[in-house]
Design the sequence.
């Protein structure tokens, strides 16, 4: 896992920590934040951001939602949202 991957995971967790426990974020928010700090185009970071979210799901830190429902990160296609897992702490990851 590279530095950008770690930054995307950290950005997802940080963005979620700034919001209400049940609030969600879009992967593009993390992509934009990391893109701004690294000089990369945020659109190029969208799939890496989705992969970062899937890794965080595997660790139990976040859930991926689509249409307001938790979905399987390995099969979901299209727009997603990310929220903290009910049992996760704000700094988990």
Sequence:
């Amino acid at each position: 896992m590279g530095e950008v991957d770690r930054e995307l995971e950290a950005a997802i967790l940080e963005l979620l920590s700034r919001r209400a426990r049940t609030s969600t974020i879009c992967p593009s928010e993390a992509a934009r934040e990391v893109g701004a700090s690294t000089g990369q185009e945020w659109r190029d970071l969208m799939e890496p951001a989705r992969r970062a979210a899937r890794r965080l799901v595997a660790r139990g830190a976040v859930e991926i939602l689509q249409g307001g429902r938790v979905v399987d990160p390995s099969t979901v296609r299209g727009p997603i949202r990310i929220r903290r897992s009910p049992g996760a702490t704000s700094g988990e990851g």
Remarks:
- The first strand starts at residue 62 and ends at 66.
- The first helix runs from residue 3 to 17.
- The mean pLDDT is 94.
- Helices lie at 3-17, 27-38, 46-58.
